[in-house]
Amino acid sequence: MTVSRFPDAPPQIAALKVEARGYPVPYFVSWVSGVPEFRAVDPRKIERAHNRGTCWICGEPLTGQVKAFVIGPMCAVNRISAEPPSHPDCARFAVVACPFLSRPMAKRRPMEGGTAKVPAGIMIERNPGVTLIWFCRAYRTQREPEGILFRVGTPHRLEWYCEGRAATRAEVLHSVETGEPLLRRQAEADGPEAVQHLDVLLARAEKLLPA
């Protein structure tokens, strides 16, 4: 299928296969019986995208010095992403076009039959309501039993989004304040030093919020 509901998509996005509703199918999506399963990431493509230096969203080679990570507010606290970087214009397209990212009330639909793969790291099962594109020139990888994580580098630029538009400071604060208890419970389970470290990370992350 070649007709897309997004005529202004970047060329590399427009070149992707399109599913029945008119949504381009990102590179990372799993295919089940010839049908894209948007809820499931193909775990093989995480390593593949990293090793080959390709965009997580379109699958084409990354060009330019600046890479873009599409993350939530809690990932901005610990500066870790479970997904590799993308082209800046692919990332901007995703935060506007993806129903889960652009609709704060959208929820992850459960996978039937337990076929979903849990990503590396600790996944927070919620829609944060806001999304951050973290632009940086460098990042590091971190190996975990479940796979690979990406430690984002010093931000070159930050763009906060809500409902496909620039997010307000109040919207980002609300997301951080409602997500922080989830991180704190994990830190408390790990001990006092983890709690102190979380407080340091939260204070650092506060400087990243929009004016």
Task: Summarize it.
This protein has 211 residues and is of the alpha+beta class. The chain has a domain at 61-206.
What is the secondary structure topology, with strand pairs?
Blueprint: H1 11-14, E1 29-32, E2 35-41, H2 44-52, E3 67-71, H3 73-78, E4 80-81, H4 88-97, H5 99-102, E5 131-136, E6 139-144, E7 147-152, E8 155-162, E9 165-166, H6 169-190, H7 192-206
Antiparallel strand pairs: 1-2, 3-5, 4-7, 5-8, 6-7, 8-9
Helix pairs in contact: 6-7
What does this structure look like?
This protein has 211 residues and is α+β, with helices and mostly antiparallel strands. It has a domain of 146 residues. It has seven helices and nine strands; from the N terminus they run H-E-E-H-E-H-E-H-H-E-E-E-E-E-H-H. The protein has a four-stranded antiparallel β-sheet with strand order 3-5-8-9. A hairpin with a 2-residue loop joins strand 8 and strand 9. Helix 6 packs antiparallel against helix 7. About 9% of the residues have low confidence.
What labels describe this entry?
211 residues; alpha+beta; four-stranded antiparallel sheet; three-stranded antiparallel sheet; globular
Measure the end-to-end span.
43 Å
Rg for CA atoms: 17 Å
> In sequence order, what are the helices and strands, one letter per element?
HEEHEHEHHEEEEEHH
Uncertain segments: 104-116, 118-124
Strand order of the largest sheet: 3-5-8-9
Q: Main beta sheet, described?
A: 4 strands, antiparallel
How many helix segments?
Answer: 7
